[in-house]
Amino acid sequence: PQQDPVVPGAPGHGCGHNMMGTAGVASVIAVKKSMEEHNIKGTIRFYGSPAEETVISRPYMVKAGVFDDVDAVIDNHASSGMGTDYGVSGNAVISVIFTFKGQTSHSAGAPWDGRSALDAVEIMNISTNFLREHLHFTHRMHYVIIEGGEAPNVVPDRASVWYYVRNTDERIEDMYERVVNCAKAAALASGTTLEEIKILTGVHQRHSNKAMAEVIQSNIKLVGLPEWTEEEEAYAMALQKELGKEEKGYPKEISELREPSGIQVGGGSSDVGEVTLVAPTASLRFPGGVPGAISHHWSAVSSYYGPAAWKGLNAGAKVMAGAALDLLTRPELLENAKKEFNEYSAEHPYKSLLPEGATPPLNLNRDLMERFRKLMEEVEY
C-alpha cells in the first residue's frame, strides 16, 4: 500500500472513527434483539460522540445532563489489538483560541503607525515555548496559527492562534493560567489588545472503572480475535514494510487487562474522560488497524477500511454486546461497578472545565467541509 488519496487534501478517518460508531450501533442492535427475545428488562442507549478528535461533544453532553440517569457506560475505540484497562490515563486538555487586535498600516511606508496582531501571536508562541522548560513532564502543548493577516505589505490588525493545553487533572488549570499570562504579556509587548480568549472545550483525564473493565475483559476472552486470511496478513505486512515497521501482520493474541501505570507521563486526550467522572465507564479497544500504522496519517486511513477492519469492528461489537448483557442479567456486576464509582467520586468530584456560558463550536470545520463535500460525494465506494 502507498499513499494515493481519492480526493487530495480532503478529510479522512485517520483514527478509526468510521469503525467505532458502526461497532457501537451493531452492539446496541444485538442487545436490543436479545432483550426482546429473552424478555430482559432494562434500557440500552447508543450515544454518538461527534468531534471526538477535537474532544468537543461529551463535555457539553455531560453539561446538558445527558448521562444523569445512566447506570454504566461502555465506550469503544478502534485499535490494532483487543484489550481494555482501568485507572487514570491520558491527559486533560483545554482547547482554546487566542485572538489579538492591532492596527493596520503600510508595512513599508509607515510601519510605525501599525500594531501587528501577528507579532502578538509570535511573541506569545515564543513565551510558551520558553515556558515548556518549567512545566511538569506530564504536559503537552501544541498550537497552530489560524489567522495571521492578508498580505505582507499590510500590518495585520487581527491574528489568532489555537492552542491545545494538556496536563494531568491536578495541573491543567495552573498550566492554562500560565499560558493565558503569556498571551497577556504578548499583547502588552506588541501594543495590541488580547481581544478574545475562546475556550472550545475542556476535558479531564480518563478515570476508568475497574469493575467495568473486568466485565469487558471477560467478554474479550469469550469472543477472541478474528481469524485473519492470508490476503489480510499480506496487506498488513506490506503496509508495515512501507512504513519501515516490523513485518508481523495482524495480532494473534488478545491483551491482558491493563493495570494503571504507577507514573503519569502524559499523552493524548479523549472526551470520554468527562463521562468516566459522571458514570461507571470503561473503554474497549478493538482490532482492525494494522500494528505499526501511524495515527492521523494515511496509513491509519488505509488500515481502518476493508475486510480486516470489518472483522475487527464486528468482534468489538460482540464484546460490547456481551458486556452489556452481563450487566443487564447479573445485577451484582453492575452493583460492583456503581459501588466502586461512588467511592471514587467521593474523593474525585466532577468539576467541568468549561467556562460559564460556553457553547459547542458547531461551525468549527464548516469551511473545510464546504470546500470538499461536493468532491467527496462524487466518489463511489
Q: Summarize this, please?
A:
The chain has 381 residues and is an alpha+beta fold. It has helices spanning 17-38, 57-63, 117-131, 172-190, 210-223, 230-242, 272-276, 298-303, 307-329, 331-347, 366-377, and strands at residues 73-78, 83-84, 87-89, 92-101, 140-147, 158-167, 193-203, 206-208, 281-286. It starts with 16 loop residues before the first helix and ends with a helix.
- Total number of strands: 9
Strand order of the largest sheet: 5-6-4-7
Q: pLDDT under 50 segments (min length 5)?
A: none
Please tally the helical runs, counting DSSP H or I stretches of 4 or more residues.
11
**What is the total domain count?**
2
CATH class of the largest domain: Alpha Beta
Q: What is the CATH superfamily of the largest domain?
A: Zn peptidases
Q: Averaging pLDDT over every residue, what do you get?
A: 95
Structural class assignment: alpha+beta
Report the C-alpha radius of gyration, rounded. 23 Å
Whole-Å distance between the termini? 18 Å
Overall shape: it is globular
Q: Please give the largest β-sheet.
A: 4 strands, antiparallel
Share of β-strand residues: 15-25%
